[in-house]
Amino acid sequence: MYRVFEALDALVTVVEEARGLPMTANCVVPRGEVLDLLDELRDAIPGELDDAQDVLDHRDDMLSRAEQRADELTQRAEEDAAKLTGDAQAEADRILADAREEAEQLVSRARHDAERTVADSRAQAQDLADRARAEAERLAESGEVAYRQAVADGEAEQARLVAQTEVVQAAHIESGRIIDAGDREAQRLRAECDEYIDSALASFEETLTRTLTTVQRGRGQRGRWSAVGAKDRIGTDLLS
């Protein structure tokens, strides 16, 4: 292509430098030089056209190969994307399954702990109730013994005083005092017994409330309703 442009430029130069004819726009050009340039241009043009065609053919081939390569890359990208999507879905399913399994284990563990805590609370309540009942019986028995001893002492003192005619009135008064003292002592012992029972039951109720609160926090909404039902059943058992 350079030879074509070079021959054209030389031809233009020859025409521009040609001698002009007076009174006309024509000029006198050297025929031989112009013909030589035209021959050179004729010889250069077919080769340049072939080179240009080769370039065009090569370009089409390159475009075809580029399109084929682009199609291959697109197909590979789609396959890779599908594989990545499948792998991501499989990983998500695995993570979800693991999370569900772990949640079920946590719920099962919380339910087991709650049931064990309720059982321990019931056992503790029963133990406290048994100890309170035993202590109450002991105090009542002790009060009864003290009362009987006071009555016996009063009766003995009364009999002794009655035997003494000069102090019969005083004996009656003293025996009444002793009997009243025995009654007051028995009432005091009974009051202490009732107070001890109330204190033990209040302590147990506080312990049971804290335990049920802990169970409710671990089991969630459903656990909380179950814990409340358990507390009501325990309270009903204690009342019965």
UniProtKB/TrEMBL annotation:
Q: Which keywords are on file for this protein?
A: Coiled coil
* UniProt-listed CDD domains: ATP-synt_Fo_b
Task: Show the coiled coil region(s).
Answer: 56-142
**Source superkingdom:** Bacteria
Q: Does the record's keyword annotation contain Coiled coil? A: yes
The protein's name in its UniProt record: DivIVA domain-containing protein
Q: Which organism is it from?
A: Pseudonocardia eucalypti
